[in-house]
């Protein structure tokens, strides 16, 4: 049996759709071969309609593939869906899995019974989740009365109660305010660190990818167009980092090394913005060159804007 948490080979799903009088075949997922190791955190990203939800549904056993192979936690998702349910936790940002009229605490009790957790194990895990997701103040409130941020935290706790090895999150931070997003991300980082949980998430929020994922799979029209780090994705479109330096005295011109572009200066040379290609020159080398001709008081470095990177990848393929 495979040691991969997710393993697909040539996974494909098509749909027949009606267009006026005609019928047409839409290829939602096209020949996807993906391997995810235990403990990885993978951001599965792409434009609307790229095929992300269809992939997730096949991984969870909700949808039957048209062609290809898929194993999730070593299991055949459709044929072994009940066994798989013990291994994975699924969070859909736009659909609730909680019992709407019940207090959150009772939803947890029901889920503990469904997963056949021992009372001590269930209590310990619930306590851990209540503390880490700060659920204490609304455990007795019916789910329907929770704010979106509270409900999402409860959803995540519900999906993770049985300590799944794989957590699949479909748009987990959609509609959340900045603070709620931050809390949820911090929780997922901790959960992964402490329990070795594998994360697969789809998102349109690049902050999720930056904070949570060490690997990014970018899909376009059902096909994988990038599989690697976020930094490597930025490099594919030649995205640059930008250094801003504040100097002690006005210095109109700076000698800069190869691989840099001087973007401009302000205050008669008190502040300079310098773009550099991280593949060709390090931030330290740029700083050393600036320091050779001026005293540097402060500096900041901007990473490439991920949304811009994704837009550029898409544009280059059209
Ligand atoms: N049940 C269905 N019947 C017909 N076409 C479908 C069905 N489900 C998905 N599709 C089509 O398959 C393609 C991929 O859809 P999918 O929902 O997987 O994309 P997505 O990447 O999850 O998009 P989004 O970011 O909008 O959620 C789209 O063209 C969509 O219209």
Automatic annotation (TrEMBL):
Gene3D superfamilies (alphabetical): P-loop containing nucleotide triphosphate hydrolases
UniProt entry tagged with the keyword NADP: no
Residue stretches making up the ABC transporter domain: 6-246
A single Gene Ontology CC term: plasma membrane
Gene Ontology MF terms in the entry: ATP binding; ATP hydrolysis activity
Keyword NADP belongs to the record: no
Protein name, entry field: ABC-2 type transport system ATP-binding protein
Record InterPro entries: AAA+_ATPase, ABC_transporter-like_ATP-bd, ABC_transporter-like_CS, ABC_transporter_ATP-binding, P-loop_NTPase
Biological-process GO terms, alphabetical: response to antibiotic
Membrane topology: Peripheral membrane protein
SMART domains hit by this protein: AAA (SM00382)
Pfam families tied to this protein: ABC_tran
Taxonomic source organism: Nocardioides marinus
Compartments, as annotated in UniProt: Cell membrane
Keywords: Antibiotic resistance, ATP-binding, Nucleotide-binding, Transport
